[in-house]
């Protein structure tokens, strides 16, 4: 997916100076921005490592430093076996299976683990941080598999696949996307494979980085899609002869929900100066008392989704300010076990977003269906067909939207309410946050496609209202759609390419840009 132009994002991101923002995650993960380690991070990294090395020499066992892991935490490991211990941890935990995870997700995972390493709370050597930064900048993307994380003790398997590549083992994609051996990719980039010392294996794999990276990407996508949802709703309202009176600011103020107010403001702006809307304001011309819920309640539904995204952003920003590892090196020089790797906070909002996404798509599909039904569209031809009976118009486009919405409802079932114990009951409650993130990615893609179908439908319906014309904002959107080669009314043609082109237009940000010529015009 791509919803933010690379030109609007940083071309490099400073790591270890302060918490990253979701936009910075997107810049590196999706648009290939380079990373640089903040100068003051090296002092923290070095101090933490000195503490780990002192504890490694202590005859008393310290978890993750001189012991085994998980259910084997009571097993003392002799110094001469600890390198093997660390390498064995990575190899054994790189147990993912299934399809390759998308490049942008792996890069987000990689960046967020680097950010935690740079906090100085993990105890790794500076060379580990340097290697992870160099791999990102070289465009080396380790192969991470779809299944393997339970979202507790962090995203263990995905992070282990990343660490395995840093050891020069396994496979990666290079900058061109070619599949190559990790050892060859490192050699070509002039990066020496890591040999892990005490504590470093754990430090590389304990964290919520995968689910958090996918959350940051989803927030970026949804910022755009929420605006597009308001735009496609405006197209539907206008072309179905709906009223904009219900979106008045004083009516919105009676229910002071911030997201609702923002969506209503968008709708007012999008429908402003519309001859189509003005054509039926006179009660003598239009005798309808109220529009259907899918038209009239658009800001209430869209606004609730906006508020859900705002809440998810708060959780994401807190997590981006976190140093998730176990054990963790504290600011006062202690090494303490903890449970901060549990993914529950992130998993919950990932599931919450999936619910909001499903409902956004559901109301959009209902608006689309109304436009195609001659008994409810107020004068539009059945299915917006050219020659009714011979042509089917957009009949089956609505089927596609309905099929997607049905799937989105299934994807809205929370993953975070599930838990399967692991590690011989040591890890007896897990978050399933990785699974929540994976299904949200599919849901966001589905939402974009449902909105694209409403976009195509609404623009064709506007054309069929001629000689009445839409307002300036919706006319600009229609012009952008037509400029992309998406056909208006006429005999039946191959519909799928139009829907794919419309989806690309939605995801590119071009629809939002056409409707709101400057970002500051968007509430």
From TrEMBL:
Primary location group: cytoplasm
TM segment ranges: none
Pathway membership, UniProt: Amino-acid degradation; L-histidine degradation into L-glutamate; N-formimidoyl-L-glutamate from L-histidine: step 1/3
Pfam families given in the database record: Lyase_aromatic (PF00221)
Catalytic reactions on record: L-histidine = trans-urocanate + NH4(+)
Record EC number: 4.3.1.3
Gene Ontology MF annotations: histidine ammonia-lyase activity
InterPro entries on file: Aromatic_Lyase, Fumarase/histidase_N, HutH, L-Aspartase-like, Phe/His_NH3-lyase_AS
Coiled coil: none
SUPFAM superfamilies the record matches: L-aspartase-like
UniProt-listed GO biological process terms: L-histidine catabolic process to glutamate and formamide; L-histidine catabolic process to glutamate and formate
Keywords: Histidine metabolism, Lyase
Protein localization: Cytoplasm
GO cellular component: cytoplasm
Protein family per UniProt: Belongs to the PAL/histidase family.
Protein name stated in the entry: Histidine ammonia-lyase
Taxonomic path: Bacteria, Bacillati, Actinomycetota, Actinomycetes, Micrococcales
